[in-house]
Design goal:
This protein is of the alpha+beta class. The chain is built from 15 helices and eleven strands. The chain folds into three domains: 146 residues, Porin chaperone SurA, peptide-binding domain (Triger factor/SurA peptide-binding fold, Orthogonal Bundle); 127 residues, Chitinase A, domain 3; 104 residues, Chitinase A, domain 3 (Roll), CATH 3.10.50.40. The strands form three sheets. Strands 4-3-6-5 form a four-stranded antiparallel sheet, with helices on both faces. A hairpin with a 2-residue loop joins strand 9 and strand 10. The longest helix is centred in the last third of the chain and has 31 residues. The N terminus is likely disordered.
Amino acid sequence: MNSLKLDIKCALSTLVFSGLLGIAEARVIDKIVAEVDSGVVLSSDIETRLNDLQTQAELRGNTIEMTDELRQQVLERLILEQAQIEVAKRRGLQIDDARVNETLLQIAKNRDTDLLGLKNAIESERKSFAVFREQIRRELLINEIRDREVRSRIRISDSELERFMETTGGQISTAPELLLSQIVIGLPNRPSPELIPQAEQKAVQIREALLKGAPFGQMAVRYSDAPEASQGGDLGWRNILELNPVFADALADAKKNTLIGPIRSPGGFHLIAVRDRRGDQSVVITEYRARHILIKPDAVRSPEKAEALAQNVGHELLGGADFAELARRFSEDPLSAAIGGDLGWVRADQLVPGFASVMTELPLNTLSEVAHSRFGYHLIEVLETRESDISEEQMKNRARQILTERKFSQELDSWLRQARVDAFVEIKS
């Protein structure tokens, strides 16, 4: 699919379960609904999750019918969640307060607020911030055990990478991204012969209902066995090459707002909604071979004097002075001054806005007016431009990432099913 940045991103944008923003402060009188190894699922856990699903549906302008079938779906998801927590416990994994705090700060930042603002927002919805915080810890723990048990075992060999590059390398920079949702009618690891057609028939019936106008999100919440079911089956944006080849082939030509499936996988039968599509065109980057002279204001030289000096240097250049010589004499960019102001090949996104905006508009071999950035005052020349697709090294890195995410998705599905099988589960009446 790790750095702290990626870990936090995973915890925030693809959280395993959706109970983060819908944890009610008020709780019903609890009773144990299920024992999962040394842990339990409480009746209040189910009510909390159902309340959250209802809240999410209302935000989307929908409603959810609180059926016995839905309660059973929620219970099964909570059992699977607890089974993963139990595996994490046995491995001695913990999420400390610092990690939770860091994630909360990131959530607050994404909401354009601070930690106090986040706390007030949660409590304004009559939700317990303390409970919210513990749910964050729980979600992080689940992601951690998945990384330890599944992602850490994924290896991409050089030969595997080469084969992938040979067959799809030319598509890596052009492969489309699809905004997907799915409904999965799950199958156990070794399903009985009669169970397979039953699951397929159920998937077909759901497909027919969807084609007649049933809301996909509601059907996912009610019927899907996938972890993202509580989010209406939302998978987010996925690069088509990251998908299981079975799904990638089926989705290769899929248009926006189409329904694909049922598609059989080891985990069951999948119905996939293509909500949007992007990125079918090659991303070509303009690179600039540029040079500059930087004059900085400082404690002695005011901004006005720095700008005036830059103007004077510019006049010398226009009068025929050698750019490289003046760069070595006047430029206060220590890295480029020694080599005549040469920046080599650069992209606009690598540079500060004040510099980049001038550089990209300059005709070749033309001295700019004095440009201002947060570093000071610049004189800029562009010597050459070139159009470049993604570099070979970037392409390899992207290919490795795609293969890793593809394998992770496959292995995670198998691991989750095995975790459920291995867990001791006792449903209380």
